[in-house]
């Protein structure tokens, strides 16, 4: 069987980390596209030179020519400008909508059958711009945010309970950012929901609330520490989990920005919900019943996403 081909659009911090993880996991060969093809080529060569040490054979190349992404099975997009200190994700909209429109053209022309994962911020709006501009089927175009947000939530819960991250599950809904909605009653330690753990005296509601707030601000906390640029190790790992589920038809249930057509009472909007990812792309949207408080928080989050999409519409038509 021929190796899979994965195109990474953007060879910055996340792009390079994605390429490294793809090599280590032997998911396929990599083509990294960037407006700085030398950077893409340098990272590709550097990572390939770790192959003999780590024992992987993935071929890696850098390019500045979209023709080189032809036939890719998966495309992961990080192209754009990162968030700088003092800049909200939303400030990025005008800068990055134009970049994503260009990328959409390249993907549509050279690999319209690919499964596409958008990472560029502001995430929910950029995935919308990509799908609109490329015309690719909505079940093949998703945004990465929920896996990262829930991973952060899982880590903070595991630290609070002093248990392995492996035994903590988390459920998050909504847009990426301050309005994301972590559902504590569906977040568990070995199947025990967080509200029960509060009752059992493992933690307090105040501490859970603080963890929820820290999760929602998870990206900002790292931006502040790094001083230049934003998180990249965990975002890359999160997108790889999505790509792997598609390539291996694992059918994992992962929270992703997906196109809603009435689920959760929302129509024609990309927003974070749990989905099943398999060889068919988004094979199913998991729709649970929300209580009044959760529904209100989700609707607020959808409103914030809609505002970003409206801003993008003005910029890219
Ligand atoms: O949860 C999430 N979705 C995110 C999103 C979590 C963390 C970071 N997130 C966003 O990902 C972040 O706000 C940025 O919008 C993207 C990429 O983050 P990264 O840290 O990788 O940014 P870099 O290092 O600046 O890399 C961006 C690369 C850089 O090499 C540019 O030269 C390139 O994008 N770039 C382009 N490539 C191709 N085509 C165009 N037009 C282009 N413009 C810039």
From TrEMBL:
Its EC number is 1.1.1.37. It catalyses: (S)-malate + NAD(+) = oxaloacetate + NADH + H(+). Substrate binds at residues 83, 89, 121, 152. NAD(+) binds at residues 10-15, 34, 96, 119-121. Pfam families: Ldh_1_C, Ldh_1_N. This is Malate dehydrogenase. The gene is mdh. It comes from Roseomonas fluvialis. SUPFAM superfamilies: LDH C-terminal domain-like, NAD(P)-binding Rossmann-fold domains. InterPro entries: L-lactate/malate_DH (IPR001557), Lactate/malate_DH_C (IPR022383), Lactate/malate_DH_N (IPR001236), Lactate_DH/Glyco_Ohase_4_C (IPR015955), Malate_DH_type3 (IPR011275), NAD(P)-bd_dom_sf (IPR036291).
